[in-house]
Automatic annotation (TrEMBL):
InterPro entries: Metalloenz_LuxS/M16, Pept_M16_N, Peptidase_M16, Peptidase_M16_C. It comes from Tsuneonella deserti. SUPFAM superfamilies: LuxS/MPP-like metallohydrolase. Gene3D superfamilies: Metalloenzyme, LuxS/M16 peptidase-like (3.30.830.10). Residues 1-26 form the signal peptide. Residues 231-417, 726-891 form the Peptidase M16 C-terminal domain. The keyword Signal applies. This is Peptidase M16. Coiled coil: none annotated. Residues 78-219 form the Peptidase M16 N-terminal domain. Keywords: Hydrolase, Metalloprotease, Protease, Signal, Zinc. It comes from the Bacteria. Belongs to the peptidase M16 family.
Length: 977
């Protein structure tokens, strides 16, 4: 059975009038080849062999004489899309020592050239078919598999025929030429380089310790420079011949088409495939084995202390067991559910201890079957100080209590309620499960050698075993999670004098006293016991918005709301609250509290409810509480359901009416920010995360990441002083889109947001604060302390902002995508200088300034000048010459398909209509959205480029400390200007 279902954003047919895509032509069943190898009737589908899990009857399974297996199903989410996955049962763990990185290298070369696709034609071809590179068209390599992914929009029968033909040629007959190898090797090496730095070193060294003696220990999918540079066309072909065989391949297809037609396409294009040479058995992945001298009484094996001066402390220990294939039966899954509940209880206790203040910032227990290599229980935590032994003792003490005594029935029921609402929501929303997610779930099940189950089956199994969730059973499963043949551990520290492997081993073996202080003892809390927000109010205005049956409601206190009740996404309601003035609210001296607010504002509490009480009151409910600071507003967001909508609105409104100001969340946010700050310097990417907004917005203090000294000045009292007035300011807009009853929602709004007192106006000083993009000038040069072969480069042009300019901002997206394609061709495909350069457009809507077009790339330090030269040349050419019609089609067709698919979901419309309850032009401008994004001319693109890209840009480079490149970079950039 697949793992616990997760709620995902799905696209369901709402049939908006102005964005209807072309209807899908009927499948020509007579022309389609009838499948011969579908497993129906009494034949057990291949994925269910050895299992008594009820079959998910929406899937059709087949197995062909050549050994290739497939799974297909009809799914109309989003409409007209078909998601195809081709899984090869070979990844980095199948490589020999000399082949490290070959599985991933072949993934790249498969897209380079193949039987039906000329050199470099794959990406343009799929773009012309409407697939966006990187999201609709992609592939991934793990230790155990390589998966090719293609989401085909507007999947007509002719297009599906073409796609299956192209994919079959890619998988069965890639060219794998010496020329292709020479072109793809630099791209893979660039990808490897960009993944480097301290965090990657820690991951690699940790893997060597945790999986010592097993193949997984030293086989990362990216490979090594030595093996990649030594690769030849023949050695790569040899790997392909060995593992790319029909009996190692599964094709999974889910989409808006007759499943028998899809099965017929699989059989037609993959049925004649034959492996070359004898079948090769997969290598033995190895078992975790205790080293000499270890025993059940002394199970600690390999330990390692890794010193990284710029990384925060973290400690992981793993209880290791051999992984073995299982029969995926109902009894087996009942055991998994008990395991999951046992972990949830421990994790809640660990979090409770962390919230109360103590020796660690966070801690978590997680059981995982890792790459069919080990069944392991991982314990990971972050010590707050150099006293890692106390933190380890405190974490082990909480776990020791869970191992010594059974949990309370209240604790069990609390977690059961969380499980039940998650499983029930999956059942409610099964009609809008995206085909891409369904296909990915099957691929994951195959990889871990398990089955797939319908959401109803998962819920039925869970509810049918409730009598098994006893304290004694949970205790037994808790103990089994920590019963293993060997314990391995890694401690990461900035100071090597703190510990050594022997000290770590001794600390893990030291006796520990069980700590039961974090056990749940408080009673549940009811919304019915909470005080009213205020006097309930009736709407002062209530009528249609004039679009899609959306209703606009206003209350006497100035609160406005947009409500769209529809059943396109059963069981799901999205709520978003907009208020205040966002980043404009903060004076420079208050910037530190803005950053802390992103982490601590919700946790600081609501009325009588602290963070623990907020958890309790939402137990067994589908509720959320996400907070964000946007350009011109603050937002609360949640995914909920009709049954919980009124209480969700109460929580949001109570945060504005009666905020609580607990100190611990602020102190914890400070500690986390201080621990994270120095780690930003470990890579150019980290420096950009820390400093790019600050530098791009002309060093505006509001956008600076607070350093340790600034954080030391912040106090819980200062936090309240800044945030308390901000929660009272500005009009409130509430958007509720989804499956709910309008009358009930309006009544709930009247009791909550409509009952709020009159809001204070936003101060004129805040309204006057804009965002200014930095002026052109000598490039800003920053430094990182990571690998000497890593650098980053950024170039940005100021653009526009505001609602009135939305049509132009949408055309600017077309121009940005044109720019992105050209930069990708130059920096990745032609020179291999950067793995994934990105060009993006930012157009703020709620304020009138701060828009920009920016390009970012991770490169070698010596390639920073080449990046600036390339971006300048592309910008000049776009402004001087119109793009070709084909180049434009490669951008507008994927945009059209992306918008057409996204427009079938509630969240898309919510995003587009934010602010529309008080700004009618947002509704008017929405009507032109599809045309604005997809209808243009080469001449219009040239004019837009001349308007924006002819300006002098802002430039920034991040290079390694100690390298004397700043002058070269500045000269090169100055020359490019």
């Amino acid at each position: 059975m697949t793992s616990l279902p997760r709620a995902v954003r799905h696209l369901a047919p709402l049939l908006p009038l102005m964005l209807l895509a072309s209807p899908l032509p009927a499948q020509d069943e007579q022309a389609a080849t009838a499948p011969k190898f579908v497993q129906t009737g009494n034949v057990t589908p291949w994925i269910y062999r050895g299992s008594d899990v009820p079959r998910d009857k929406e899937w059709l399974f087949g197995e062909m004489p050549n050994g290739l297996r497939y799974a297909v199903r009809k799914n109309g989410v989003p409409p007209q899309q078909v998601s195809i996955r081709v899984r090869i049962d070979a990844g980095s763990i199948h490589e020999t020592d000399a082949e490290q990185g070959f599985a991933h290298l072949i993934e790249h070369m498969t897209f380079r050239e193949s039987k039906y696709l000329a050199d470099g034609a794959a990406i343009p071809t799929f773009q012309r078919l409407g697939a966006t590179f990187g999201s609709d068209t992609n592939a991934e390599t793990s230790p155990t598999q390589t998966v090719y992914k293609l989401d085909v929009p507007e999947a007509t029968p002719a297009k599906l025929e073409e796609v299956f033909k192209l994919l079959s040629g890619m998988i069965q007959a890639p060219t794998l030429s010496a020329k292709g190898l020479a072109e793809d090797r630099p791209i893979v090496l660039a990808e490897k380089r960009e993944r480097g730095a301290a965090a990657q070193r820690v991951a690699e060294e940790s893997r060597k310790t945790i999986f010592a003696g097993q193949r997984l220990a030293n086989r990362l999918p990216i490979g090594t420079e030595e093996t990649l540079n030594a690769a030849t066309a023949e050695s790569v072909r040899a790997f392909h011949r060995r593992w790319y065989r029909p009996e190692n391949t599964v094709v999974v297809v889910a989409g808006d088409a007759d499943p028998r037609v899809l099965a017929g396409l699989v059989e037609r294009y993959f049925g004649g495939w034959k492996g070359v040479g004898p079948h090769v058995k997969a290598p033995d992945f190895g078992d975790p084995k205790a080293p000499a001298g270890a025993s059940r009484e002394n199970p600690v094996g390999e330990t390692q202390v890794l010193v990284e001066p710029d990384l925060p402390r973290s400690l992981t220990y793993a209880v290791m067991r051999p992984w073995r294939p299982v029969n995926d039966t109902i009894v087996y899954n009942e055991g998994l559910l008990l395991d999951s509940l046992a972990q949830a209880i421990i994790n809640r206790r660990l979090e409770s201890r962390a919230r109360a203040g103590g020796s660690y910032l966070y801690a978590q227990v997680n059981q995982e079957d890792v790459s069919r290599t080990a069944d392991a229980t991982f314990v990971t935590f972050a010590p707050l100080t150099n006293d890692w032994k106390s933190a380890l003792t405190d974490v082990r003490a909480v776990i020791a209590d869970a191992l010594a005594e059974p949990p309370t029935q209240e604790e069990i029921e609390r977690e059961m309620a969380e499980f039940d609402v998650a499983f029930a929501s999956s059942v409610e929303q099964r009609a809008v499960m995206a085909g891409s997610k369904l296909a990915d779930d099957v691929v994951q099940a195959i990889d871990i050698r398990e089955t797939v189950a319908a959401p109803e089956t998962v819920l039925t199994v869970f509810r049918g075993m409730k009598d098994q969730f006893t304290p004694a059973n949970v205790l037994a499963h808790t103990r089994s999670l920590f019963d293993g043949d060997v314990i391995r551990s890694v401690y990461v520290t900035p100071d090597g004098s703190e510990a050594d492997p022997q000290a770590l081993r001794s600390a893990l073996l030291a006796p520990v006293k069980a700590d039961g202080s974090a056990r749940l003892t408080a009673k549940s809390i009811s919304f019915g016991d909470l005080p009213a927000i205020g006097t309930p109010q009736q709407p002062s205005a209530n009528g249609p918005l004039g679009l899609l049956d959306i209703q606009r409601v206003a209350f006497p206190n100035g609160t406005t709301a947009l409500l769209w009740s529809n059943n396109a996404e059963p069981g799901r309601v999205t709520v978003k609250v907009r208020f205040g003035s966002g980043w404009r609210a903060f004076a420079p001296q208050d910037a530190v509290y803005a950053k802390l607010g992103e982490s601590a504002l919700v946790g600081s509490g609501v009325g009588e409810l602290g963070q623990d009480e907020l958890d309790r009151i939402s137990n067994g409910r589908k509720m959320g509480f996400d907070f964000a600071i946007d350009d011109g507003v603050f937002t609360f967001t949640a995914q909920t359901r009709a049954a919980d909508l009124a209480d969700q609105l109460y929580l949001f409104a109570a945060k504005l009416a009666t905020p609580r100001w607990d100190a611990n969340p602020v102190l914890r946010a400070k500690a986390a920010s201080k621990l994270a700050y120095e780690s930003y310097a470990t890579s150019p990417n980290g420096v950009l995360e820390r400093d790019l907004q600050y530098q791009l917005y002309a060093r505006d203090p509001r956008f600076a990441t607070p350093d340790a000294a600034q954080l030391d000045t912040a106090t819980p009292e200062g936090f309240r002083k800044v945030w308390e007035p901000l929660l009272k300011q500005g009009p409130v807009e509430v958007l509720i889109f989804g499956d709910f009853k309008t009358d009930e929602a309006i009544a709930a709004l009247g009791r909550t947001f409509g009952a709020l007192p009159q809001r204070a106006p936003i101060p004129a000083m805040a309204l006057a604060r804009g965002v200014k993009v930095a002026s052109a000038g000598p490039p800003t040069v920053l430094h990182h302390r990571g690998d000497s072969n890593q650098a980053a480069a950024v170039i940005a042009w100021p653009s526009g902002a505001g609602v009135a300019g939305l049509p132009e901002s949408r055309q600017l997206q077309i121009l940005t995508d044109l720019f992105n394609n050209r930069l990708l061709d130059e920096m990745r495909e032609r020179t291999g200088a950067s793995y994934s350069p990105q060009v993006s457009s930012d157009w703020p809507e709620d304020i009138g300034s701060g828009g920009s077009i920016s390009a970012v790339a991770m490169v070698r330090p010596e390639d920073v000048p080449a990046f600036f030269a390339a971006t300048d040349e592309i910008a000049r050419d776009l402004a001087a010459n119109p793009p070709t019609a084909d180049e434009l089609a490669r951008v507008t067709e994927p945009l059209k398909q992306s918008i057409s698919r996204a427009s079938t979901g509630n969240t898309f419309w919510l995003w587009q209509l934010e602010g529309a309850s008080t700004d009618p032009q947002r509704v008017r401008l929405l009507r032109s959205l599809l045309n604005d994004y997809t209808q243009t001319t080469p001449q219009k693109m040239q004019a837009l480029a001349a308007k924006y890209l002819a300006k002098q840009p802002f430039r920034l480079a991040v290079i390694p400390e100690g390298q004397q490149l700043a002058t070269k970079v500045q000269r090169a950039a100055a020359g490019a200007r």
